[in-house]
């Protein structure tokens, strides 16, 4: 991590929207990646099951995008992500073993409840993921951030554009968006490039600090 | 805490409904406070962001109402509340550092999940807040209390009257009601005094042991 | 526990559906039990409040059904269940004190959030209950299991047949079904035997490994 930078900034630079790649993959990833870049969404998180794709993704787009690994729940997963060259790692849980495995790579840990967020912050972190943020409904977007005014909160889940808006208005610092941009609601397959573009464009205005 | 009294009773005496003051404040608080007292709701919790209001509130109504601070998530917040003269402190999380900060002032700690409630009770507490209780839906009001028959559970959140009813019927001991009495559904501004009176009156029958 | 068997298999053998008996009891339990057995549902969990019924249930059906105790949240509850002869014990929380109390009787511990599931697995368990699984909505059934691909997850709650389907499709190993089979939606009394049979039959296809 670089001096003076928050772990969130070290992870995804100026991006506020992180696009999570569906576990089932995206058929034509190179096209989708170019569309995301054109729409200004340059922070991507690959589920740890897809970590084998990272070397190619980094070779093709690693200079233009921040490429991370997400869905990591133990130290082994963190080490796997780091070994694959991930720019950053996202874990929906926390633990000193995970932090030890990350070394210099920015690792954002998380929790779901106020207690779990407090536990993340007690490790000295300035940022906590909230995962899965879609599980607790819209009211939670309003009630959680005011409890931790000094922290950066980053909701993570199947968040529509309006839900990201709610989180940001309540004080969240960024959001990890699962599926919504790259997959249709029914979860079958991936969106066509023009649909990805349309959805990415709707999130673009949020992707600024 | 006084000998033989539960921490809940030490905190709010005979009240079962604690009215949380909105973070955004209430324009004419003195009028609202008088209305609450007329309707028999004499336990109020101020978010820690409004702790600067406590000395005046205590001077005006401290002899007729129990005035606490809520939304505290760390030991510093507990100490701030105690220093301001709070009659009681409510934390949606738990931790030995919070308990140490409270000294003789009744502190109710809490959690959201069954595990977190169990963790609160393992600290020796007889009471656990459930926060935010509105996040987990109506079924949770029925399924949580039977798991902890020996404990006092106190749901906390944007709870309508019927939701408080459900919690009480399932065995909860009290409820901390956010917004509903003092604020309209759309969250804009505060309710007018007659609307506060109407809503407070609907909760009044619950405010008895 | 027997060598080579997972704790889940040691607890409920080949069953994937565990039927939870309502806390309020079932008026004519013997008839209901026969119906469940006819429909192939041979794993039952009695809330710890009904632990006094276990000796009779075990005497009548203990050779044909797996009979456990659920809703246990502390070591005393575990010991009570073991002393009553429970074939297995289900706890919605975890803790080393609970594990110590179980001795050789299969004990499945649980949690609600990803962090709590991770904590269960960190105790060395291969199985984690998810309780109450109905509190976090349908999306959670899809998002939780992929985070723990090596673990057996067992959702527990008021789960309709389609919800169990969702959990199983996402990788869950079994489900503890509260109320749905033995009680009507309005929660008043118990279902008549033919209604129990109809509901049990709808779950039967899921009850295979």
From TrEMBL, chains A, B, C:
<dbReference type="InterPro" id="IPR013785">
    <property type="entry name" value="Aldolase_TIM"/>
</dbReference>
<keyword id="KW-0119">Carbohydrate metabolism</keyword>
<dbReference type="InterPro" id="IPR000887">
    <property type="entry name" value="Aldlse_KDPG_KHG"/>
</dbReference>
<keyword id="KW-0456">Lyase</keyword>
<protein>
    <recommendedName>
        <fullName>Aldolase</fullName>
    </recommendedName>
</protein>
<comment type="pathway">
    <text>Carbohydrate acid metabolism.</text>
</comment>
<dbReference type="Pfam" id="PF01081">
    <property type="entry name" value="Aldolase"/>
</dbReference>
<comment type="subunit">
    <text>Homotrimer.</text>
</comment>
<dbReference type="GO" id="GO:0016829">
    <property type="term" value="F:lyase activity"/>
</dbReference>
<comment type="similarity">
    <text>Belongs to the KHG/KDPG aldolase family.</text>
</comment>
């Amino acid at each position: 991590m670089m001096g003076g930078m928050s772990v969130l900034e070290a992870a995804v630079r100026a991006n506020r929207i992180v696009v999570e790649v569906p576990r089932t993959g995206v058929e034509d990833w190179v096209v989708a990646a170019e569309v995301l870049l054109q729409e200004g969404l340059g922070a991507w998180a690959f589920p740890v099951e897809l970590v084998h794709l990272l070397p190619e993704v980094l070779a093709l787009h690693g200079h233009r995008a921040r490429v991370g690994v997400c869905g990591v729940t133990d130290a082994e997963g963190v080490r796997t992500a780091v070994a694959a060259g991930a720019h950053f790692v996202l874990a929906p849980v926390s633990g000193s073993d995970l932090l030890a495995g990350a070394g210099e790579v920015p690792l954002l840990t998380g929790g779901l409840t106020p207690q779990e967020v407090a536990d993340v912050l007690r490790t000295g972190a300035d940022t906590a993921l909230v995962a899965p943020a879609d599980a607790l409904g819209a009211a939670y977007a309003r009630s959680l951030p005011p409890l931790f005014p000094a922290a950066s909160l980053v909701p993570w889940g199947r968040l529509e554009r309006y839900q990201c808006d709610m989180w940001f208005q309540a004080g969240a610092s960024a959001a990890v968006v699962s599926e919504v941009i790259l997959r249709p609601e029914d979860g079958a397959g991936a969106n066509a490039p023009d649909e990805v573009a349309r959805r990415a464009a709707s999130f673009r205005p949020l992707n600024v600090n």
